[in-house]
Each structure stands twice: as structure tokens, then as C-alpha cells.
Amino acid sequence: MRQAGLTLSDAFSRVVTKHREASGLSRSALARLAGLHQTYVGLLERGERSPNLDTASAIASALGKPLEELIAQASKLQTSVRRRR
User: Fold this and answer.
1) Of 10-14, 70-74, 78-82, where does mean pLDDT reach its minimum?
2) What would the DSSP string read from start to end of 22-67?
3) At 43, which CATH number?
């Protein structure tokens, strides 16, 4: 049985939002830097879309972060949410 909680994809979305806001980027600016449509970035940040690896890599690059760092932060967030339940 699957536990209710934060999926890795949802956690990744939260991490992207956190870094985008900390960088002072709008969704539109992040989308432009990553070569994506701003609507997609909005869907991603709301957890309505999950990026494939190439898209996640483009987002990480646009944020000036290694993809591995964003994934590690998302995994840590997901784990911390599970432990609180």
C-alpha cells in the first residue's frame, strides 16, 4: 500500500520554486532561460506536470544549480515529510 505523502516529483517542484524565487526569477524568466514555455513552468511548480530528465536538467542549468543538487534536496524534503507523518 502506498503511503500518502509527498512524491519525489512534487518535492522537486517545491525545490524548483524555492530556487527560482531565491534567484529573483519570474516563471517567465525561468522558462526563457530553460527553453520552456512559461505555462509548463507554472504547471510544474503546481505539481501538475513532472519533468523528464532533459527538462529537469535544463531547469537546473537555468537556475545555476547542478541537477544532482536539486534532486538531492527534493529527496531530502520528501523524506522529511514522510517522517513527520
Assistant:
1) 78-82
2) HTT--HHHHHHHHT--HHHHHHHHTTS----HHHHHHHHHHHTS-H
3) 1.10.260.40
Give the position of cell 526563457. Answer: 32
Query: Would 15 be classed as within a structural domain?
Result: yes
Please name which of 30, 26, 28, 29 lies closest in space to residue 65, comparing C-alpha atoms.
Answer: 30
Residue 29 in domain: yes
Query: What integer pLDDT is reported at residue 1 of this predicted model?
Result: 32
Q: What is the model's pTM?
A: 0.89
Q: What is the pLDDT of residue 2?
A: 45
Question: Domain range for residue 14?
Answer: 8-77
